[in-house]
Amino acid sequence: MNPTLDQAERLDADDELAVYRDRFVPIEDPGVVAYLDGNSLGRPLLAAAERLQDLVRHDWGSRLIRSWEEGWLTLPERIGDELGRVALGAAPGQVIVADSTSVCLYKTVRAALALRAGRTEIVTDTANFPTDRFIVDGIAEQTGHTVKWIASDPWSGVRTEEVAAAVSERTAVVVLSHVDYRSAAIADMTAVSRIVHDNGGLVVWDLCHSVGVLPVELDAAGADFAVGCTYKFLNGGPGSPAFLYVNARHHNDFRQPITGWIGAADIFGMTDRFQPAPGIRSALSGTPTILGMAGLEASVALLAEAGIPRIRAKARALGRWVIELADAWLVPLGFTVASPRSDEKRGAHVTLRHPAAESLSRTLIDHGVIIDFRNPDGIRIGLSPLTTGYAEVWHAMSVIRESARTRPAAAGSGTSR
Predict the structure, then answer these.
(1) Any catalytic annotation for residue 231?
(2) Average pLDDT for 389-408
(3) Quick one: which of 368, 361, 375 has its CA closest to 410?
């Protein structure tokens, strides 16, 4: 059966999340056919623009330095608690907004190693996102630990049996992504965490491609630590701060390595020695990025209104729609669907593989279909349920079909994570 534009428009008409598209800043570029890269950079909210204006004019412009005591200093915890409630399945006092994903990952891995002194190995997988692999490698060099690599298939994700085979009494910490950045394969957080704990180790989860679009239940899954960015499905904006999660059972012994003044028990005491603040606030280091948090606060509020269950349901449906179109139009042209076909195993993007994917990606971007290329041969189609429509996807897939049929693609590649 040939998928039709009428079919796409009916899906849009029945979409109960379609009303939220009007909450985002319109795309003024008339050349954009479809924006399918919200899993790298989400679109800006109108409320975020309004909040930034108010912050500059009132909080910063009028209240000036008084705004620190009038609310700025507690923003990392307040937004963290709300993010934990809305999207992470985390009880209050366990999530804080801070730094970048890379810095948060460094902090949590170093803290986890300190909690498992005497153990010699850090476990991660060869297909993990480069930042995660690079940071694990760097920490191992600094601390003398050995990295044990799981040789995972990037198109199927890390399997629980691979983790079980890799961990042992030597394992201090396991670092994994919840959703694979190439294929969108979902790791079994609960099962993996249990396997690692049964061997006495700890787990740090990277949630960059799951937060805001999948139900994440950190407390229920028994997670130890987690980190993630806020500029993808959370629509926090370029450079918006990341977050980290520390399960409350580790708070008494949690010691992160970047002991800046904002993480101290008395930040204005100007004491001679660092004394960590109680609880999650000890994870902070430097001055909070107030401007960066303005957009994030608006986005978390919208996420709470829309609800993760509805967002997840649409992400699944959009993924099925992409796969249906790919099977009908693109597989006959040499494409393969690299993401899991099962809704239960697939995150919120679909990756299509093609031998000429790198050059074809540049052609698609030039023709207004904004996607990502992922080495070596993947075209990643990001599906942001609050901003992506079914007809938008139909038009994008039409451009991909015509480009593959008629246009030899030029060199180039996409950017971002």
Answers:
(1) yes
(2) 92
(3) 361
